[in-house]
Write a structure and sequence with these properties.
microsome, 2 strands, globular, 3 domains, two-stranded antiparallel sheet, mainly alpha, about 55% helix, about 210 residues
């Protein structure tokens, strides 16, 4: 018996979101966390897909997660069933901290409303307009100078995150930060820590909704 076709299942999933795709049997409390290598979750999920196909369900503690693997599955989901996958799941720890509010940590209709407001506000501040283009070109100049300063030597790729972050800060605060500015570096570090937390499946065990 072959693996299930991703496109057929995604269309079925769109008709009834309660019918989740098959996946490994979850254990009490931890779900399928025992199957995941926390340092390389991608490899663990790809291994599971070999048995259950490109679309399957895993349980991260108390939360069910539909996993898409492979180009065709992701393409089909984003193009043909985008209305099913346009929302974002609630992150339990941030739900307890912010009660579901905010641009990054809200979900469902509140997230959609906040996202529309944020995009409209960013456009008013210059995103997507001539001012935004000027900010990007200005920041590109500083990024090129930073790369040249290494004189062909190795450097950490995290430096590349500084440019887009600085463009956003310039639109919001009216000025850019120097790449050595301690406040700027602290903000980047805090953003990295938040993203690291978001990628930790243990949050779904420690903070059930």
């Amino acid at each position: 018996m072959g693996l299930p076709d991703a496109g057929k299942f995604l269309r079925f999933f769109k008709q009834s979101a309660l019918n989740l795709p098959p996946g490994p049997f979850p254990l009490p409390v931890i779900g399928n966390l025992h199957l995941l290598d926390i340092s390389r979750q991608d490899k663990s999920l790809m291994k599971i897909s070999e048995k259950y196909g490109p679309v399957f369900t895993v349980h991260l503690g108390f939360q069910k997660v539909v996993v898409l693997t492979g180009y065709e599955a992701v393409k089909d989901a984003l193009l043909n069933t985008a209305d099913v996958f346009e929302d974002r799941p609630a992150i339990p720890i941030f739900y307890h901290i912010q009660h579901g509010n905010g641009v990054f940590f809200s979900s469902q209709e509140l997230w959609k409303t906040t996202r529309r407001f944020t995009i409209a506000t960013m456009r008013d501040l210059g995103m997507g307009k001539h001012l935004g283009e000027e900010r990007m070109l200005e920041e590109l100049h500083f990024l090129i100078e930073l790369i040249r300063s290494f004189k062909g030597g190795p450097f950490q790729l995290r430096f590349l995150n500084m440019a887009p972050t600085n463009i956003t800060f310039a639109l919001l605060f009216g000025r850019r930060f120097d790449y050595e500015d301690p406040t700027f570096l602290t903000l980047l570090r805090l953003i990295d820590e938040v993203m690291h937390l978001l990628g930790s499946p243990f949050l779904h065990v420690s903070y059930p909704l």
